[in-house]
Amino acid sequence: MTPAGVDTPVPETPAVGGHGAGHGPGRPRSAEADRAIVAATVHLLAEEGYSRLSMEGVAARAGVAKTTIYRRWPCKSDLVVHSLGCLTEKLETAPDTGRVRDDLVAFMRQMVDKMRRSEAGRIMPGILVELSRNPELAQAFRQGFVEPRRASMVKALRRAIDRGEIRPDIDVDLVVDVTVGVFQHRLMVTGMAIDDDMPDRLADVMLEGISLRR
Amino acid sequence: MTPAGVDTPVPETPAVGGHGAGHGPGRPRSAEADRAIVAATVHLLAEEGYSRLSMEGVAARAGVAKTTIYRRWPCKSDLVVHSLGCLTEKLETAPDTGRVRDDLVAFMRQMVDKMRRSEAGRIMPGILVELSRNPELAQAFRQGFVEPRRASMVKALRRAIDRGEIRPDIDVDLVVDVTVGVFQHRLMVTGMAIDDDMPDRLADVMLEGISLRR
DNA sequence: AAGATACGCAACGGTCGCGTTTCGGTGGTA
DNA sequence: TACCACCGAAACGCGACCGTTGCGTATCTT
Q1: Quick check: helix, strand or coil at residue B166?
Q2: Are B189 and A150 within 8 A, CB to CB?
């Protein structure tokens, strides 16, 4: 008797976004609960990592019964996949200053700040192992989280090419990965300090190279 | 009645290495068991990650009883800390070819291969979350695993400075982090392909910079 | 008002892994 | 030979979570 004519009694995730107007009889899903659950998931993902994230923990933090979660998502990974998709918030952006160097440095500064402080930024280390184990999660993470954050820097580099500031034959993706990778590597792997002018030094290295000019 | 005069009945980890010669009466610890346990730990660490690594799993894979493990290490994190210290195996090294570019490219090629294929190389993503949670583990990981692998590249860059190939004022650590970070970022985060001449392209970018020369 | 559905709460049986204990047997040293 | 610490196997109680169910209540649509 479901609108779509499917006879399975399972809710099958009727798409959380689709209960706005006249839907059917009965009490509608609480949008507030949706919000609280996703927020709790993101928080715990950042704080504890994927493997230590538990449905009971999410329920407790969201102030919601476990049943309320399972009514929406059949399992933990589906909940996480959906929650990652909700992270479109204010992204870091490379401004258009007219000079690559300034664009890059500004982007890096924002990025470091986000990685350290924002909840979304701290999700990274706790989710990496799962990516190789759960392709759907990996897809959601890369498409909904990684890509949008790279986009603005890719644009900045393209602008720089158009302006004739940087070589047109460079591998843009490679440069973006360098920029992001260094800071992530420091934060997650080596634990070395990131001082205030590291973005400047990196910009120098990337723009001018490390070769000794003759 | 323990030699050291400590009255605690707990074994207190009598240092695994210390059962070589005449030690005391009774059957000595099996060195083969030591080896098997550590090998199993490293394997499972690479395959499953820290959080999914279980003492029971290690025991099963090592062909050893759980008691045999607990007799040596009081808990999982101590076992892992010790096992990480046993990873000194053949490290990737930057050869001394006389040209930085060749040294760098060779180092990168080896590194990518190790990251993909070797057991030690695959440990990375599965241990990162724990580093922020367990300082002792972080210390063991960084000192016993990360540092030795950086060392050879740091040397290569110093040689290049001495030869006058690269600018003497560059931040060596930064360059190393760039080199390692990019590949790690691709493998763990973006999942983008790493083609055969990516090391070459990266070496170009780092040596010559991306600026358009006038 | 009637019916349908969501809600919180509490409890369930089940699985997993922890760290410990007991046991009979084994391989060394003195 | 006597002794002693080691070994593997098995079982233990414990706690954390899982995903599900039943219940009484709340809140919508018709």
Answers
A1: strand
A2: no
From residue B213, how far is each of A46, A157, A168 by CA, in Å? 43, 16, 11
**Cα separations in angstroms, B156 against A17, A96, B44, B135, B165:** 56, 38, 33, 30, 11
Q: Which two tokens stand for residue A208?
A: 């001018």
pLDDT in tens, chain A (214 residues): 333 333 333 343 443 433 344 578 899 999 999 999 999 999 999 999 999 999 999 999 999 999 999 999 999 999 999 999 998 776 778 889 999 999 999 999 999 999 999 999 999 999 999 999 999 999 999 999 999 999 999 999 999 999 999 999 999 999 999 999 999 999 999 999 999 999 999 999 999 999 998 6
Task: Find which nucleotide's C1' atom is closest to A59's CA.
Answer: C8
Q: Nearest by CB to A185, which of B167, B177, B212?
A: B177
| C-alpha–C-alpha distance, residues A190 and B179, integer Å | 13
Q: Tell whether pTM > 0.70.
A: yes
B208 neighbourhood in chain A, CB within 8 Å: 209, 211
Sequence letter at residue B112: V
Within an 8 Å CB–CB cutoff, is residue B99 touching chain A?
Answer: no
> CB of B163 within 8 Å of any CB in chain A?
no
Nearest residue, CA→C1' of C8: A65
